[in-house]
């Protein structure tokens, strides 16, 4: 699987997670710490995306891990919707 294909697959997972959260009517307003974490992770991802050069592969890996963290926070928000 190429790097581009992997990124597209991860983006699809993230879009699906977001869509599932909204479809379930999850309110992030009741979970301010999780909402803040999600916003911070998205900002971190944008900063990593805008960084120059590949940093020996570490920048790309950091983006991948940040995408996974975003997906986990979204899943946590969904799981905690009843809290």
Could you characterize what this model shows?
By secondary structure, the protein is mostly helical. The protein has one domain. 75% of the residues lie in helices and 0% in strands. The protein is built from 3 helices and no strands.
Poorly predicted parts: none
Question: Count the strands?
Answer: 0
Number of domains: 1
Mean pLDDT: 84
Strand pairing plus helix content: what structural class?
Answer: mainly alpha
Q: Which percent bin holds the helix content? A: over 70%
Biggest pleated-sheet summary: none
Radius of gyration: 14 Å
The string of secondary-structure elements, in order, is: HHH
What would a concise description of this structure say?
The protein is an all-alpha fold and 83 residues long.
Keywords summarizing the entry:
mainly alpha, 83 residues, single chain
How are the SSEs placed, and which strands pair?
Elements: H1 3-23, H2 32-50, H3 58-79
Helix pairs in contact: 1-3, 2-3
């Amino acid at each position: 699987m190429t790097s581009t294909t992997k990124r597209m697959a991860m983006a699809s997972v993230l879009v699906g997670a977001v869509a599932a959260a909204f479809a379930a009517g999850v309110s992030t307003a009741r979970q301010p710490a999780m909402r803040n974490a999600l916003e911070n992770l998205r900002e971190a991802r944008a900063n990593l995306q805008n960084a120059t050069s590949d940093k020996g592969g570490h920048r790309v890996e950091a983006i991948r891990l940040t995408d996974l963290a975003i997906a986990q926070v979204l899943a946590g928000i969904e799981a905690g919707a009843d809290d």
